[in-house]
């Protein structure tokens, strides 16, 4: 019986759900190792087929069937499909929030178009702090799970909405900085400093046009927050397709040395937060063992 494996590992049903959910939420990034294995250009194929609606039509039923077969007769196929779809698309939403974007409507016969909210790059110090605080609250049971989930979702959503407003303000400021059209221009949010953006452009190699703190940018008149939110989310000028050209993101390339250096400078400090949380987790785990 397929359930035998879970029983022999003494796993409860909820533990199986959590492990399965975590694995499925990582599945779209299977394109990473595959590009290396098949010697394909990673920057061209990453976040394309495996991060698309079309890809999900193949992957989700396949994975759901595997999960359903493993837990039969505990789980119905519909239940397995629902869990798999939610976990799979949670990955796509998270990747869409980042500046790298996803090719949601990928089809093999068309040049890929990447969509992005553009609010964060890899790490985001404020989101990390919110996540780590939530994990500590959950670990010590300081709040009910439902309340914690609601509070965390509300705070992260508000923070991301504010980051999108800042991206819009950065975009508007960048128009005054460039004084004319630049080829393949995009804004990169700092992973560590929440209000810092870099304006890059690509004309065969990546150039850093400017780095600025959006909180320090001069604004002529004070605008109502409602108006800024509308412009940030709905105005066509700052479209969701404003992502870096893929050839500019080729790994270990001489063409984007400036970009890689800036990314390292703004990403490495966030690792201190990650390390601090890892140390806390080990200590907290040791305390109960
Ligand atoms: Zn991904």
Name the helix and strand elements from N-terminus to C-terminus, one letter apiece. Answer: HHHHHHHHEEEHH
Q: Total strand count, please?
A: 3
Would you identify the regions where 5 or more consecutive residues have pLDDT less than 50? none
Strand order of the largest sheet: 1-2-3
Amount of beta strand: 5-15%
How far apart are the termini?
33 Å
Seen as an oligomer or otherwise, the chain set is single chain
Helix content: 55-70%
Tally of DSSP helical segments: 10
> What small molecules are bound in this structure?
zinc ion
What does this structure look like?
The chain has a 3-stranded antiparallel β-sheet, sandwiched between helices. The chain is mainly α and 289 residues long. 56% of the residues lie in helices and 7% in strands. The chain has helices at residues 4-8, 13-26, 31-37, 42-45, 53-71, 77-97, 125-139, 145-178, 225-234, 257-288, and strands spanning 185-189, 196-202, 206-213. It folds into 2 domains: 1-116, no CATH class; 122-289, no CATH class. The model has no long low-confidence stretch (mean pLDDT 89). It has 10 helices and 3 strands, in the order H-H-H-H-H-H-H-H-E-E-E-H-H. The relative contact order is 0.10. Helix 2 (13-26) packs across helix 6 and helix 8 (145-178) crosses helix 9. It binds zinc ion. Residues 28-29, 47, 51, 91, 95 line the site of zinc ion (ZN).
């Amino acid at each position: 019986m397929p359930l035998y494996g879970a029983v022999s590992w003494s796993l409860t049903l909820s533990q199986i759900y959590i492990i399965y959910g975590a694995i499925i939420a990582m599945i779209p990034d299977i394109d990473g190792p595959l590009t290396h294995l098949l010697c394909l250009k990673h920057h061209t194929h990453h976040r394309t087929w495996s991060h698309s609606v079309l890809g999900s039509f193949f992957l989700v039923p396949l994975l759901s069937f595997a999960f359903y077969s493993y837990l039969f007769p505990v789980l119905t196929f519909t239940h397995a499909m629902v869990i798999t779809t939610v976990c799979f698309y949670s990955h796509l939403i998270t990747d869409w929030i980042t500046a790298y974007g996803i090719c949601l409507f990928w089809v093999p016969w068309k040049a890929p178009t990447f969509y992005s909210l553009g609010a964060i790059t890899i790490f985001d110090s404020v989101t990390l702090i919110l996540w780590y605080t939530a994990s500590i609250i959950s670990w010590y049971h300081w709040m009910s799970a439902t309340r914690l989930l609601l509070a965390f979702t509300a705070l992260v959503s508000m923070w991301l909405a504010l980051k999108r407003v800042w991206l819009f303000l950065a975009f508007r400021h960048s128009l005054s900085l460039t004084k004319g059209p630049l080829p393949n221009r995009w804004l990169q949010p700092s992973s560590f400093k929440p209000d810092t953006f870099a304006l890059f452009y690509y004309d065969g190699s990546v150039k850093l046009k400017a780095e600025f703190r959006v909180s320090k940018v001069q604004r002529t008149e004070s605008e109502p927050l409602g108006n800024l939110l509308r412009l940030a989310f709905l105005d066509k000028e700052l479209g969701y397709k404003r992502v870096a050209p893929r050839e500019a993101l080729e790994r270990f390339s001489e063409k984007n040395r400036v970009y890689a250096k800036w990314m390292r400078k703004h990403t490495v400090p966030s690792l201190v937060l990650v390390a601090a949380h890892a140390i806390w987790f080990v200590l907290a785990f040791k305390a109960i063992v």
